[in-house]
């Protein structure tokens, strides 16, 4: 492989464990090989391309671990229309996202198996923008009284579960289930054995049922507060346990509509920061105009950024992580670095992706660059390649390719 070395220079970077002023990030092929003050780097190296983005800051590329679609593509019905997962990938790259987990909702068994197989097949071809790193199955083993915007659920069936895993062709990373359903502990065992993260959600589980699931290996809670029994002072439910058991990572939808800002603040006061995962929960309507869309079999209407089913139930969102993480910072009163962790290293680690989510040597060269005044995305680098750039920021080309621009 021909060596490709690129140096990215910004006003500062959030690694996200520390802030580095006047930062240089040196990448070789698809890896970061050095990061630090720019004065420590030589700009004269013949094979080096240099990109200087002024009035800007860098973060690790964002990781969206729960997203249903974008720019007209719906992961639950992947072959339904002309929009493709690549359209979704490019849309996300333009928002600083470098890794995402297409999330499918429940459907009748034969439909769900086909959709999973179709999604896995199209994911075999690399995307041009953000990287699709796995599949999240949200349902169908969920409580029928807590469907939210979903339209189907069924009892736990381990045979059906194994068929879904087979259809996913090794790409299933997470599955949402209700821990109160009969057979939940056996389901957790099947998932953990297959290397799939069991995530509790769409549930009315009580304290005992939740703790038994956690003891068995469930370590995540899907979109905390949404589609589950409410927080109450004398009835301990999934929410109460998820907030207070430090073994559990908690997803939070950060669009400002699904959860009141004070509940986000409450979560961050209860949970260790590394157990808070910000998600978009975005649908195919993200990056699209107002109109009628769907999530799997659920028809939705989007008006002025609000996404609802036709009978008024909140249904996903159009807010992506580049906007949401700054709202999160305001809601929770966290620092810029701490907010950045919720959209980078935290979701990456929760999915056992240990090669991304952090700006450090040997990590995958996934970098997002933002305007330091407006927080507008300016550049996104995925696996060392420029997958989005507002303009040409190159200030020095490699000697042997000086006439070539990205």
What keywords describe this structure?
single chain; 406 residues; alpha/beta; Urease, subunit C, domain 1; TIM Barrel; 2 domains; nine-stranded mixed sheet; nine-stranded parallel sheet; 10 helices; globular
Any idea what the CATH superfamily of the largest domain is called? Metal-dependent hydrolases
**Integer count of domains:** 2
Mean pLDDT: 94
Anisotropy-based shape: globular
Radius of gyration: 21 Å
Class derived from helix and strand content = alpha/beta
Give the proportion of residues in helices.
10-25%
| Residue windows where pLDDT falls under 50 for at least 5 positions | 401-406
Query: What would CATH call the class of the largest domain?
Result: Alpha Beta
Number of helices: 10
Largest sheet: 9 strands, mixed
Question: Total strand count, please?
Answer: 23
Distance between the termini: 18 Å
Which fold name is given in CATH as the topology of the largest domain? TIM Barrel
What fraction of residues sit in β-strands? 25-35%
Any guess at the CATH architecture of the largest domain?
A: Alpha-Beta Barrel
